Amino acid sequence: xxxxxxxxxxxxxxxxxxxxxxxxxxxxxxxxxxxxxxxxxxxxxxxxxxxxxxxxxxxxxxxxxxxxxxxxxxxxxxxxxxxxxxxxxxxxxxxxxxxxxxxxxxxxxxxxxxxxxxxxxxxxxxxxxxxxxxxxxxxxxxxxxxxxxxxxxxxxxxxxxxxxxxxxxxxxxxxxxxxxxxxxxxxxxxxxxxxxxxxxxxxxxxxxxxxxxxxxxxxxxxxxxxxxxxxxxxxxxxxxxxxxxxxxxxxxxxxxxxxxxxxxxxxxxxxxxxxxxxxxxxxxxxxxxxxxxxxxxxxxxxxxxxxxxxxxxxxxxxxxxxxxxxxxxxxxxxxxxxxxxxxxxxxxxxxxxxxxxxxxxxxxxxxxxxxxxxxxxxx
Length: 379
Fold this sequence. Notes:
By secondary structure, the protein is an alpha/beta fold. The chain folds into two domains: 2-129, no CATH class; 134-377, Purple Acid Phosphatase, chain A, domain 2 (4-Layer Sandwich), CATH 3.60.21. The chain has helices at residues 2-32, 35-61, 69-100, 105-129, 168-180, 197-204, 222-226, 229-238, 279-283, 303-309, and strands at residues 134-142, 152-157, 185-188, 216-218, 242-243, 247-253, 256-262, 293-296, 313-316, 340-344, 347-351, 369-377. The strands form two sheets. Strands 1-12-2-3-4-5 form a six-stranded mixed sheet, with helices on one face. Strand 10 and strand 11 form a beta hairpin.
């Protein structure tokens, strides 16, 4: 039934996508005055894009795979990134044409500018997406933090999306950079994969090399539930990662305590009812302790329930910071925070822009990150 609904969605999305390609061509091609050859080239590229984008998604949902599947998916994702910029810029140009009614050279030059800018955004975004993420340093003041935990360091990685376009070599480089930071604890906040254990375990294996004296902890994201969450929980445990499914651990130093908890993804109950996200359950009996409480939660919108449960800090991902312009301006309609450190009532929420990328290998005005958080006392 779920697979049938997915196919129905893909059919509708493919029709809408084809219509958007036709509209974009209709807006740009006549104004380029490029002759028959220009029409053929432009129409051909748009037609190819309108086929490759849904083809990549069809292959992701199908049970048929070959050595060409990942290449077709990559081509589709590249087209998705390029067409996204092309469509947005074409829409902005069309609005300007309606408002100001220019003519002549400006109309032709603006059409060419849209195409060149789209290509530039895509090229720069591709390069940015494949760079090793930089380290973002964040200091979080925590009320009542014991002296024994002053300066406690947590490295967060999130939203790697290991899959058809992001593979083992990138994971190895991320793990090496994380280990070089020598954190007290490593937090993995979900969406690490886009695919099954059988197809990706060799690429996620380096996650087992992560090291931290207080442990490496992870929680599920929504994409784990698209990819077989129970199998991934088993695989992560095999690699030596501690999976927190509405659970917690209590860290101790010199008699002082720090609670670290993790919840399942905000949407987990839609896939596995027993995995319903529950910050209160995650805190459990540790709620009786007079100790600071840190929560790993994939989506920022878990913050309301987390604050009510009494956490001091929530560490999240999911948003990718919008990943590339202009979508960074729209994340806030679905999540309370897009990126960075913010306050929700008395609780801090840190939202990472993500360590990898989803879909189009493209990051523009929203760089990937490895986050190094330092806890300090807020006196």
